[in-house]
Design a protein that fits this description.
Radius of gyration: 11 Å
Strand order of the largest sheet: 1-2
Number of domains: 1
Helix content: 40-55%
Largest sheet: 2 strands, antiparallel
CATH class: Mainly Alpha
Distance between the termini: 14 Å
Number of strands: 2
Shape: globular
CATH topology: Cytochrome Bc1 Complex, Chain D, domain 2
Number of helices: 4
Structural class: mainly alpha
Length: 79
Amino acid sequence: MVLFFNVASGGDAAAGKATFEAKCADCHYADDFAGEAAGNIVALIGAEETKAAHEGKADLSALSDADIANVAAFLASAK
């Protein structure tokens, strides 16, 4: 859990919200962060874990580590 907050603290929550709404909300519903097919992404702890969780499922190549850190910051702020 410490890693999650370290990653999240380096991100920009406002930018993360915009990225989440544009790239993540279709599968990870913004209201509850637990899309049926997606699982609870609040539990993910960082960029590497996020990439591993999406292997073969979604194209994260358009998301940089900074984008993922921003989304993590947004999710951490929304808890």
